[in-house]
Amino acid sequence: xxxxxxxxxxxxxxxxxFGGIPVQRIDEPGTRAMLKAAHExxxxxxxxxxxxxxxxxxxxxxxxxxxxxxxxxxATKCRxxxxxxxxxxxxxxxxxxxxxxxxxxxxHNPAFCPKPGDGSGLYEAALAPGGAMEALLEAKAKxxxxxxxxxAHLSQTFEKALKVDEIETIMFPYNIVEQQGKELIDxxxxxxxxxxxxxxx
Length: 201
Fold this sequence. Notes:
single chain
């Protein structure tokens, strides 16, 4: 397995990560078997989300049963906009994942949030006073969250995230048929933000 520096987070991640969305199509024993195989293959990064139904819960159960929580950089995400919503979602993630800290907590594709049609929901609500970012920054100060990131599907959202200092990682699609983010990926590296490739295959 190859490993790369994760932007300026100080973390070193496997070039191939474990995406948690397909867990919904199997079961708890299957999740445990996949994570065991991922660990044996040298994968040390897991991505899941509050929106992926049973994914957080089954991943948390598997990591606890396998005794592997500290062997993985664990990332999850939610669509909270307000501070109170983010506090509740973070608490749910911690419970589901059976852990007292999450290495990377991400804003989940904020273009889905109520907003004008330019993907600016994150900037209008989550970053405003009383917004979700306040909750993540407080959690980060307490060591409950290691780093803060964002996932996006619109180039406008990606571009705006590049300007937010508190956002340390950006996940965006890039593959043989989706290359609209190429120039933005280069700018991501220039700013020291980690880029996570969504749907690489």
